[in-house]
Amino acid sequence: MSTGTVNTLIARCMVDPEFLALLSSDRDAALRGYDLNDRTRSDFAALDIRRVIGLAAVITKVQNNGLWQWIPNTRALTVRYGLEQELFAAFHREHQALRAGPRTRDEQTRRFFDFLGHALEEWIPEETPALRDVFQHERLLWELRTIVACGTDTLVCASGAPAPNGGLRVGFFSSSPHETIAAIRAERFIPANVRSAPQWLVYHADIAAQTVRTLEVDEVTGRVLALADGTRSIAAIARECGIDRRRVKRLIDAAVDAGLLTIPVRRRH
How is the chain split into domains, by residue range? Predict the structure, then answer.
């Protein structure tokens, strides 16, 4: 058997996640159709597939280095917790799907963030202090910066329904992402030192000023602003939050005065 055939098999593993998965689960079925001599087939049967998966993960990571630019502190934590290689081994399939057709950089970034968010929900251990909070913080900042760059947020608003004035996102955190990021930047982050600090943060994009600001608010304000997406009336927001309508109205009015929200008015024809 030629070295070219071996190289072809290894190269296929790098670009064909389905083939790599089959090689992992059913070696004979994966190799069927290849002209292999007995020795080479035996060598492949004894192959440590983890090394091939690891190589695919490294290549995927290198080809996606640019996706980390918006979440550098999330990356620092994945490295600290020994997750980076495992993440990119799991992202291999999605990465190859993205390469199959033309994609904008924003779409690639969003797909990677969706993948990482799912991984954090489904299989990344809970024993990774601050990782989820820092990722949520950096992702929300990226979403708002994207809105600023585009010059608009794609919302369809109903008349009289409180809506973001520019871009608005709300997040709940179990620890302070700002404290964690400061510790990472100062090279003094210690997982055991992450303290419980439940908080609601509001992220606002001022499109005219080309800026993004972050505000800490109380739970009630956070829940109300999270629902003020331009589709719900004040009464609907009050019902969903289980809060008195007059209190919601006062919070909405304060958010309008602060430039966070606007209330579209139906034009007369």
Answer: 1-47, 67-128, 132-269
